[in-house]
């Protein structure tokens, strides 16, 4: 079972992602954070997450345009933090800007996906994503 | 470098570095059997891969920058980890997704590969049918869903061209 953390500021997009993941038939455990600052607190067990259980998610789905700290800054912070260096990060965003794609790969994103706008396509994308990361890939140790 | 499967240019280009001829043939057959249309090229070790990518950068490689690299680890002359380091340290090449595809399931290899910036790490299955299934999931993910950075543009920018 894949432990997925999703950083996404839009409540509708969070609902859609939750719904799509529940319909893939691949039972992942899903958690959400709502901006880059909350994401870094979660990963570093700081702020409101100081008392959370230890361990990292298997996979982070990272939106780019978020308030407080955007996904680009968070991605760089993750790759510059030794304890988070190996965390698999898939950027999932509405952006299809070539500069964003290039920046994310340069900064160490494991892959970059554009959010499908049709719900059926989102389910399909989530199924492919879970199938790949849960059943094909050897993940780095997450503790 | 050896060209294996040739398709129209708009199909994705996968570059596989593997020193074992039987493994290369098995990967080629499995990619054909999983029904995904790709251009497929092979390098026979890490040095061949690094040389080929330098050729692509210098335009000697007919502009055929790969969309995806599948990289074995245990190879003569230059192993996959050294080749991975060289690719990920090169500003013109580092945006190319590199997937380790190896018989190794050693945790040390997994950790080192992710630390050096591989985009994912996959243990090669022994059974041919499992390899077909695996390459189908891999291709559907990386070719149908994932967005790639334009590698040629990165190369041109690094060389200071328009």
Spatial extent as radius of gyration of chain A: 14 Å
Strand numbers in spatial order across the main sheet of chain A: 2-1-3-4-5
Report the uncertain regions of chain A: none
Overall helicity of chain B = 40-55%
Greatest interface by residues involved: A-B, 27 and 31 residues
Cα distance, first to last residue of chain A?
15 Å
Oligomeric state: heterodimer
Fraction of residues in helix of chain A: 40-55%
Provide a descriptive summary of the structure in words.
- The complex is a heterodimer of chains A (143) and B (162).
- By secondary structure, chain A is an alpha/beta fold.
- Chain A contains five helices and five strands.
- Chain A has helices spanning 11-22, 36-44, 71-80, 98-107, 119-136, and strands at 3-7, 29-33, 59-62, 89-93, 111-114.
- Chain A has a five-stranded parallel β-sheet with strand order 2-1-3-4-5, with helices on both faces.
- In chain A, strand 1 (3-7), helix 1 (11-22) and strand 2 (29-33) form a beta-alpha-beta unit.
- In chain A, helix 1 (11-22) crosses helix 5 (119-136), helix 2 packs parallel to helix 3 and helix 3 (71-80) runs parallel beside helix 4.
- The longest helix of chain A is centred in the C-terminal third of the chain and has 18 residues, at 119-136.
- Chain A is globular.
- The two termini of chain A are 15 Å apart.
- In chain A, 39% of the residues are buried.
- The mean pLDDT of chain A is 94.
- Chain B has helices at 21-33, 46-57, 80-88, 107-115, 128-145, 151-158; strands at 2-5, 13-17, 39-43, 68-71, 98-102, 120-123.
- Chain B has a six-stranded mixed β-sheet with strand order 1-3-2-4-5-6, with helices on both faces.
- In chain B, 41% of the residues are buried.
- The longest helix of chain B is centred in the C-terminal third of the chain and has 18 residues, at 128-145.
- With 162 residues, chain B is of the alpha/beta class.
- Chain B is built from six helices and six strands, in the order E-E-H-E-H-E-H-E-H-E-H-H.
- In chain B, strand 5, helix 4 and strand 6 (120-123) form a beta-alpha-beta unit.
- In chain B, helix 2 packs parallel to helix 3 (80-88).
- Helices cover 43% and strands 17% of the residues of chain B.
- Classes of the chains: A alpha/beta (143), B alpha/beta (162).
- Chain A binds chain B through residues 85-86, 88, 96, 98, 101-102, 105-106, 108, 110-114, 125, 128-129, 131-133, 135-138, 140-141, and chain B through 91, 94-95, 97, 105, 107, 110-111, 114-115, 117, 119-123, 134, 137-138, 140-142, 144-150, 153-154.
């Amino acid at each position: 079972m894949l432990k997925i953390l999703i950083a996404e500021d839009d409540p509708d997009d969070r609902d859609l992602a939750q719904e799509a993941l529940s319909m893939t038939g691949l039972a992942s455990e899903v958690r959400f954070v709502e901006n880059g600052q909350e994401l870094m607190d979660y990963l570093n067990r700081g702020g409101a997450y100081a008392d959370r259980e230890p361990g990292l998610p298997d996979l982070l789905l990272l939106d780019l345009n978020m308030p407080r700290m955007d996904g680009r800054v968070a991605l760089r912070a993750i790759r510059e933090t030794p304890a988070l260096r190996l965390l698999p990060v898939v950027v999932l965003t509405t952006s299809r800007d070539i500069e964003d794609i290039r920046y994310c790969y340069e900064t160490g994103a494991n892959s970059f996906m554009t959010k499908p706008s049709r719900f059926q396509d989102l389910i399909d994308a989530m199924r492919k994503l879970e199938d790949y990361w849960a059943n094909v890939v050897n993940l780095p140790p997450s503790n | 470098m050896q060209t294996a499967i040739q398709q129209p240019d708009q199909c994705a280009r996968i570059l596989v570095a593997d020193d074992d001829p039987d493994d290369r043939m098995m990967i080629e057959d499995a990619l054909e059997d999983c029904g995904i249309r790709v251009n497929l090229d092979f390098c026979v070790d890490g040095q061949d891969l690094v040389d080929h990518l330098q050729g692509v950068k210098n335009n000697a490689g007919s502009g055929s920058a790969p969309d995806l690299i599948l990289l074995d680890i245990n190879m003569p002359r230059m192993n996959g980890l050294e080749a991975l380091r060289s690719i990920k340290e090169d500003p013109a090449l580092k945006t190319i997704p590199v997937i380790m595809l190896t018989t190794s399931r050693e945790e040390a290899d997994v950790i080192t590969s992710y630390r050096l910036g591989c985009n994912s790490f996959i243990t090669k299955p022994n059974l041919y049918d499992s390899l077909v299934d695996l390459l189908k999931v891999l291709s559907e993910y990386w070719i149908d869903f994932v967005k790639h950075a334009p590698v040629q543009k990165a190369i041109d920018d690094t060389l200071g061209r328009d």
